[in-house]
Write a structure and sequence with these properties.
The protein is built from 16 helices and 21 strands. Strands 1, 2, 3, 4, 5, 6 and 21 form a seven-stranded mixed beta sheet that branches. Helix 1 runs parallel beside helix 14 and helix 2 crosses helix 4. This is FAD dependent oxidoreductase.
């Protein structure tokens, strides 16, 4: 067993963890950053999901470092890829021309940019990265986390990291139970939160579905995978509210909850399917091929790609069989989620109805090389919901939902440490709920949502802040997670410089204002202009 001492330990190398580390490092602090999977970047890389962002992302509403990440991705394509002249000149280059976002791209490119952003800090020696490591234990005394034990996934070797501050940036809030930090899971009851969309009775096991994504293209030849042994099970699965079997092109519309059949146009000519990128009342997913396409042939010089490259993160992959938090069946549910996705691949290749009246596309080819795996599936499952701290301030539906507030103007907090925007978007859940999709105002991130009610030197740095099951649906997306992590890293450094704890800052308006000034100086937007949500 080895021991490391550092100023700040960031456990979890997803978007929040990377942003937290960068923030602390720019303040001159030493950081140990750990990550479970081979790639840093979480939902953008190891989970392979291109960013879900608001419609003003090119102008405002993100931090300066998140903008550096986005522009770095575009610069990488301009430097390394054979782009067409039009694509190279496009200041808002969207390599995949997908409809979910203004920037759909390959996960490996995001990894390259994240690596570049961290590189000078590795050279300085102030940053230590531990991969692939998971937290297995922690020592907490009188509300202070003294150390965290991280275990190497392959060798089993343990590393004890002693730090003045510990940031939980794991995908499922794994440090919270280890450190004795009070937290909540699943759905709170309406009696507790007063939220119109909350169930009458709390259900800690009722969480948003996870999905195991995969990447594919379509080329000549037969690339059909072996028929999964459990294919018949998944082929017969048909939730009551779904409108058809899960292995189909039908799924509920998030907005109306009515069954809706999507199209699947393989390698369509550009601009023949759909329109501009999705926003407002258009979810953008009516054609599954273009929804999350991450490399479009028309972006590159003729002959560069034999096919578009597509990321599958569709309703048909949502695993409803159980959650992966605080359950002895976690590994079985992870295996089943991947099995469901594998069966959907086989269905696409063999049984899916084609526009020409035939069935199946045997030319669909899994692209493990794009996601860094042997089998074509992402390194990690896509996690939508985490454990959430019992915070000094919990954001509830009444704070941000347009219908409850009576208007769509920005939802403000005096102690704001960042901004975000997304509809309250909950996928079908492990408790049997259909979509919950609620119009949301542009919102701010209150400092109080980052401060645990008891543990004094632990901060959430991902999807584990003080939100509810309902509001997590808006606060869980890529740029918000990055902002949460960045503000957590800044807060830890701010407190270390002044021998304070986060609760001390929150308790004094003058300290809150000084911290907000530090954030603003660092390029973190803490307020919205006067805009209207959707």
């Amino acid at each position: 067993m080895r021991r490391l001492q550092t100023d700040i330990a960031v456990v979890g190398g997803g978007l929040g963890g990377v942003a937290a580390a960068l923030a602390a490092l720019r303040r001159g602090r030493r950081v140990v950053l750990s990550e479970e999977y081979p790639w840093l970047g979480g939902q953008l890389t190891s989970q392979a999901v291109p960013p879900d962002e608001h419609v003003w992302v090119e102008q405002f509403g993100i931090t300066a470092t998140y903008r550096r990440l986005r522009e770095g991705i575009r610069a990488y394509y301009r430097d390394a890829y054979p782009l067409t002249d039009a694509a190279r000149r496009d200041p808002q280059l969207n390599p995949g021309r997908g409809r979910v976002s203004r920037l759909c791209h390959e996960p490996r490119v995001a990894l390259a940019v994240i690596t570049k952003m961290l590189a000078p800090h590795l050279s300085s020696g102030r940053l230590t990265v531990l991969q692939p490591h998971v937290p297995v234990a922690a020592e907490t005394v009188d509300g202070l986390v003294r150390s965290v034990t991280l275990r190497h996934q392959d060798t089993g070797e343990d590393t004890v990291v002693e730090a003045a501050f510990v940031l939980d940036a794991t995908e499922t809030g794994d440090l919270l139970p280890l450190t004795g930090t009070a937290y909540v899971t699943g759905a709170e009851g309406r009696g507790e939160t007063g939220e119109p969309s909350a169930p009458e009775t709390a259900d800690p096991a009722n969480m948003q579905s996870i999905a195991w994504c995969f990447v594919f293209d379509h080329v000549d030849g037969d690339h059909t995978i072996e028929r999964p042994a459990d294919y018949d099970h998944w082929r017969s699965l048909a939730p009551e509210f779904w409108g058809d079997a899960m292995l189909s092109f039908t799924a509920p519309s998030p907005r109306t909850l009515e069954p809706e059949t999507r199209t699947f146009n393989v390698n369509p000519p550009y601009d023949t399917v759909g329109g501009k990128e999705a926003h407002g009342d258009d979810p953008g997913d009516l054609d599954l091929w273009v929804f999350r396409r991450i490399a479009a042939r028309e972006t590159f010089l003729p002959g560069s790609l034999d096919s578009d490259i597509v990321l599958a993160n569709w309703p048909q992959l949502d695993y409803l069989g159980g959650n992966v938090i605080d359950t002895p069946d976690r590994d079985e549910h992870l295996r089943a989620a991947k099995a469901q996705s594998r069966s959907f691949v086989y269905w696409l290749q063999t049984e899916a109805p084609r526009p020409d009246g035939g069935t199946g596309w045997p030319g669909l080819r899994l692209r493990g090389d794009v996601v860094g795996t042997d089998d074509g599936f992402a390194q990690a499952p896509y996690i939508r919901e985490s454990r959430r701290i019992r915070a000094m301030r919990t954001v509830v539906e009444q704070d941000v939902a347009v219908a409850v507030r009576g208007h769509g103007r920005p939802a403000t907090f005096e102690d704001s440490v960042g901004v975000g925007m997304y509809r309250i978007d909950l996928h079908p859940s492990t408790g049997g709920d259909n979509y919950i999709d609620v119009e949301c105002a542009p919102f701010e991130i209150p400092l109080g949502a980052l401060v645990p009610i008891e543990t004094r030197n632990l901060l959430p740095a991902a999807k584990n802040i003080g939100t509810t099951h309902i509001t997590n649906g808006a606060y869980r997306l890529h740029p918000v997670e990055w902002n949460v992590g960045e503000s957590a890293g800044e807060l830890a450094a701010f407190c270390l410089d002044r021998s304070l704890h986060p609760g001390d800052v929150l308790a004094k308006p003058e300290l809150v204002r000084r911290f907000q000034a530090a954030l603003t100086e660092a390029g973190v937007e803490i307020h919205w202009p006067e805009i209207i949500g959707y």
